[in-house]
Amino acid sequence: MSSEVPSDNDEVGATLWLPRKASMPAHVVCPKMADHTAASTIAIARHELQESWQGGQVTLRLVSEGSDNDGYHIKYKVADHSAVVSARRPLGLLYGTYALLRWQETKEGNDRDTTWTSAPALQRRMLNHWDNPDGSVERGYAGKSIWKWEQITKNGMTDSLRQRLTIYARANASVGINAMVVNNVNASPKMVTRPYLEKLKVIADLLRPYGIQVWLSINFGSPLALHETKTADPLDAAVQRWWQRKAREIYKLIPDFGGFLVKANSEGQPGPGDYHRSHADGANMLADALKPYGSTVIWRSFVYGANHKGEDRVMQAVSEFKPMDGLFHDNVILQSKNGPLDFQPREPYAPIFDNMTKTPQMAELQITQEYTGQSLHLVYLAPMWKEFFSYVDPVARGLKGIAGVANTGDDTNWCGHPFSQSNWYAFGRLAWDPSLTSEQIAHEWLLQTFGRGDSVTVAALEDMMLSSREACVDYMMPLGLHHIFAFDHHYGPQPDGYKAEYPLEWCPVYYHKADKQGLGFDRTVATGSGATAQYREPYRSLYENVKTCPEQYLLWFHHVAWDYRLANGRTLWQSLCDHYDAGVRRVAAYRVLWQSPAVRNYVDKVQWQQVDKLLATQLDNARQWQHTCLDYFNGFRSY
Amino acid sequence: MSSEVPSDNDEVGATLWLPRKASMPAHVVCPKMADHTAASTIAIARHELQESWQGGQVTLRLVSEGSDNDGYHIKYKVADHSAVVSARRPLGLLYGTYALLRWQETKEGNDRDTTWTSAPALQRRMLNHWDNPDGSVERGYAGKSIWKWEQITKNGMTDSLRQRLTIYARANASVGINAMVVNNVNASPKMVTRPYLEKLKVIADLLRPYGIQVWLSINFGSPLALHETKTADPLDAAVQRWWQRKAREIYKLIPDFGGFLVKANSEGQPGPGDYHRSHADGANMLADALKPYGSTVIWRSFVYGANHKGEDRVMQAVSEFKPMDGLFHDNVILQSKNGPLDFQPREPYAPIFDNMTKTPQMAELQITQEYTGQSLHLVYLAPMWKEFFSYVDPVARGLKGIAGVANTGDDTNWCGHPFSQSNWYAFGRLAWDPSLTSEQIAHEWLLQTFGRGDSVTVAALEDMMLSSREACVDYMMPLGLHHIFAFDHHYGPQPDGYKAEYPLEWCPVYYHKADKQGLGFDRTVATGSGATAQYREPYRSLYENVKTCPEQYLLWFHHVAWDYRLANGRTLWQSLCDHYDAGVRRVAAYRVLWQSPAVRNYVDKVQWQQVDKLLATQLDNARQWQHTCLDYFNGFRSY
C-alpha cells in the first residue's frame, strides 16, 4: 500500500503478492530435522514468519495424524495472538505458514479463535514454462526467460539470479504450486544434454526446499538430433536404451526429477508418427524409461493436421486419442487444453475429457495471455478457468493435476501487466482448491498486492477484475466467434486472414466462415462437421440445436443467418454490434474508474501509472477490434 | 454541460433533457395554419428551433404523402446546414423538430447530407400519473403532484404552474408521449365532478398543441359515491345514463378527451363484481358511454384476491380474464403490467399477453421506481423493458399502446434522482420505437442532459447505466426471488415479512417459501401451482423443468434445495451469496467511478453532488439487502 510502504521505484512489483515485512521479528518454535531438505523447508517457513508475522508465538509442529499429503492445520488463539501450524510433512508446514500470513493480510472483522484445515485437491499443480534455452519465451510478454542459463554453472548460480529465483520459488510455494517444467514444449534437444542437465540440477536444488519439482519438456527426436542414434523410432532398441540411459543420468543428478512433458507430432515437432508408430507407442517407450524412478510422462493431446487432415480441427484430439484409450502405460498422463482449439478467450470445454475413461488426464490452462491481450490488457482469467471447471470438475473427474502455461519473464514485475500477476496467483490457488471463487481470489490478491485499503475501493477493483474476461470476450470474440486473431502473434484482429502457404486451420476465414448468408462454423451432426457428437449429454443435444445452444457458443457450433433473431429479439448482426459495444464500454469504465482518487490513493504510484497507460492501450485496442471486425463482416451482409 | 452552461443552482435539472439555447436565433420557415391547435403546434416547433437550432434555415413543410400518422421526414443539407422537416400533420412537424434538435445534440463525426424518416410504432404512448387530488402521489418519490389543482381555475392557471407544465409538455412531446392519465388508478370520485373537469379542461388546453391527450382514471363507484345514483351496478339503467351524461359533459369541455382508465375490483376498489357482474359488463357499460365520441376504456387486468382466492396470485389475471376473451366491446383495451405480479426488478413476462387473442391489449410499465430503490437508487430501466419486449414484441403482438406509471413530482428536477429522468426519457423513446436499444437511449439522454463530453467518460457512464438494473436485481432479488420487500413502502428488504391481518399474498414469506429444504415458489404443473401452464411454448416447457428454467427465474418457478447445483457448479446457497456480492460490488464500482475527475468535469456540479450522495446511500442499501436476506435465509439452512 503506497501510504504504508514507500516503494523503491526500480523494484515495483518485484515481490509480487508476497508478505510484507513486519516491524518486529516474530518468535517461531519449530522442529529440528536431520534431513537436509526437510530442515531447509522448515527454515524457510520460520524465516517467512519471523519476517512477516505480526502476532505472538508461532509453533510449527509435525504430527502423525491428519491428511496424507501436503495439507496443514492452523489454530489461532486470539488471547495471545499465537498460532500453531501442524502438518504431517515439512512442506505442509511451509504451505500452512503462507496460509497463516495470507490470513493475516486478508482476514476481516474482529479476530476470534480460529482453526482451519486445508489440503490440496490435486496432486500436480504445475507451471509449464515455454522458455527456450536462448532466453526467448514463446508466447512470453514479460521480457526474456527467467532462467539465465548463462548465469548458471554446475557449481551454482549468480547471486542476482539466486535472489530472483528465490522470489519465484516463494511465490509458487505461497500458492501451492509444486511442479515446474522449465522449458518450452517445442523443445530443444539441447535441454537433455549434460551441460543443461547440470544447470538444471542447480535450479532443482534451489527449488527443492520450496516443494517444487523440476520437469523437462523433451524433444521426441532428441537422440537422433544429437546424432547419438540413427533413428528416434520408439520401437528401436537403441533408441529405447538411449532414453533409459538418459533417465538414469538425470536421476543421478536430480533424484526427485518430475518427469517428461512431450509435444509430439504436433505443429512440426517430431514424434512416433514419423515412424508410423502411435502416440501410445511413443509415450509408453518414454514411460518405461522413467518407470524405475516412479515418475511420469505427460503427453500432450494438442495434435492436429497429421492423421486427420481435413477433419474439423477441434475434433482431431478425440479422433486421434480415443482409439488409444487403455493402451497407455500407467505412468502416462494425457494433458489437454481446456478447450478443443487453442486457448481462445472463450471455448466450450474440450470433449476429450468426456472421451477417455481409462487414461489418466491433466488439464492445461494458459496463464500467459496469448489470445487475451498479452501483457497489455487487464484480463483476470480466474472466471474463465472456473467456467471450464463447471464442465470438467477436476476433483470429480479425478484429474491427475493442472498445468498452467506460465506468464513470467525477466520484467521487474515478472508478468508485464501489474494485474497479470493475479493470473499466476489465481492459477496456483485454483490448482490447490478448485472450489475457491474468482472473487475470493481477486480479493486475496488485491489485499496482498496493494494492501487492505478502503473496502469500497477494493470492491470496485474486484468488480473490474471479475468483469474483465467477459469484456475481453465481448470485444474479441462475441457469441462464439473464434480464432480471428492476427497471424502468428495473435494479438490484434485479422478476420480476413488467409494465407495459401499456411495450413487452412491456422486461418481466421476457416473459423468464422462468413458469407452472404451468415456467420459461424457449423459443427452440428445434422449439417456440419459433427463435433457436437463428441460431447456428453446434455451438452451434445444442447449444442446441436441452434435454439438451445448457449449464445456464448452460438457461432462456435452454428452457421447463423445475419438476420437470425437471438433470444432478446435482436438479429445476429445487431447482437454482434451490441457485444462489441459492451466490451468497449466496459473498458472505458475501467479507464475512468482507474483515475478515481480512491484508486490513486490505494495503488502504488508507479503501478498506478503503468496500469493507467495500459488501460488507454486496451481501450484503443478494443475499439480496433470492434471496427476491424464489424467493417469486415459488414462487407458480407451488404453483398 | 457544466463547462458551457453555468447552471443556476436553484433550477438544476429542471429543464430535463430539453435542447439548450443556441447563441443566435435560427431562421425558420413554416406554414400558416387557420386551425388554432395546428397553428399553436407549429408555433411551438418554430419557437424550439429559433431558440436552439444552430444550423442554417429550417423549413417545416406539411405534405400529403408519407405515413398516415404522426411521423416525419427530415432532410439535412451540409452545404448550408439547412434542414427540411416534412410531415402530414402539424404534430409530425413538432416531433420532427425535436428529432432534429436531438440529432444536433447527439450526432457523431463529420456531417454529411442526411435524410431520415420516423413514425411511431405504437398508437398510444401514455403516462399514467398516480396523483391524487390532495397533491399526494402514490408511489411518487419526487415530491408532491405536479398538478397544482389549487392553482387552477376554470379560467386558467398561475404563471408558475403554466411555466412548469409547459416544460412537462415539451419534455413529453420531445420523446413522443401523446397521452396522459392525470390521476391515480385508485381514483377519487371527485375527479369527475364539475370543478375538477373544468380544471382538467385548462390542463388539456395547455397540453393540446403538444399533441398530448388527457385521460382520467375513474372510480367505478363514482355515481354512487357522489350520491347521484343508488347503485353503481353497470347493468342498472340509471347508472348507465349517469355515465352517458358524464361523458357528454366531459366532451363538451374537452372535445379530444382520451377516455377512462379503470382499476376495478382490485385492492379494495369498487367494480362490477360488487354487483355480481363481470369485468366485461363493467368495461362495456363505460365503453358504450364513450362510444359516441370515438374513445376508449382502458381496463386494468391487475386483479387478484376476489374471485380466485387461494389461487397463486400470478395466475389470477389469466384465470379471471381469459374466459371473457371476446366479450369486450371493441373500444375496450385491457391493460396489463409487464409481469404477472407487481413491477418487481425482474419478472417473467405476464402470460396474459399469450392468453387473450380477441381482446386489444396494452402493456403497463412502471417508470417510478417503486421496487427498484425509488428515487434513491440509480437504476436505468430500459434494459428491463427491452427484456419484456423480447417476450412480448409490442408491434408483432399488435399492442394498442404502452402506458408508463410516471415518476414525476414537484421536485426541481422532476424525478428526484437525476438519473431517474433517464427512465422517463427512455419510456417515451421506447414507446415511439421499441426497437431502439437501451444503449442508444442512454447515449442520447447523457449527451442531451450533460452535454457531449469526452467519449470515454460518456461510455463509462453508459456502462454504469446499462448494468444498473442487473446490479439491482443482484442485490434485491437474485435468481428469481421476489416480493421480499418491506411492507407498504416497498423500499428495503423484509424477507421475514408476515402479518396475519394482511392478505397472505402481500407477505414476503408467501413468495420465497424458505424452509429447511430450500427456497423458492414451486409454480410447476407437476408439483406446484401450475402457473407455467399459462405460458406459450417453448417457455411453458422451459420454465416447468428446473434444469432448463433460466436461472434468472429459478426461484420464481421452483422450490430449490439449498445444495442444488447450478450450471456453474455452485450450490443454490453459494449462488445467492455470489449474486448479492456481485450487486454490492457493482454499486461500489459506480461509487468510485463517479468520483473520477472525468465524471466530475462532465456532470453539472450540483447534480454531481446529488448523485455522489445517492450512490453512497445505494451502496449502504445494497449491503443491507445482502446482510438482511442472507442472515434470514441462512437461518433455514442451519436448522
UniProtKB/TrEMBL annotation, chains A, B:
Tell me which GO cellular component terms the UniProt record holds: extracellular region
Give the coiled coil ranges. Answer: none
Glycosyl hydrolase family 67 catalytic domain mapped to chain residues? 113-414
Pfam families on file: Glyco_hydro_67C (PF07477), Glyco_hydro_67M (PF07488)
InterPro entries per the UniProt record, alphabetical? A-glucoronidase_C_sf, GH, Glyco_hydro_67_C, Glyco_hydro_67_cat, Hex-like_dom2
Molecular-function annotations in GO: alpha-glucuronidase activity; xylan alpha-1,2-glucuronosidase activity
Glycosyl hydrolase family 67 C-terminal domain span: 415-635
Matches recorded under SUPFAM superfamilies = (Trans)glycosidases (SSF51445), beta-N-acetylhexosaminidase-like domain (SSF55545)
- GO BP annotation list: xylan catabolic process
What keywords are annotated for this sequence in UniProt? Hydrolase
The protein's name in its UniProt record? Alpha-glucuronidase
Source species of the chain: Hallella mizrahii
